[in-house]
Amino acid sequence: MLIDILDGILTYIRANSKFATEDDIKGNMPEREKHYFERAILMIEKDGYVFSKDKSIPSGSRTTFYISFEGLVFLEQGGYRGEYERNLSEAARLASLESRQAQAERNLLILNSLIAFGTLVAAVYYVLEILRHYKVID
Question: Contact at 8 Å (CB) between 10 and 50?
Answer without folding.
Answer: yes
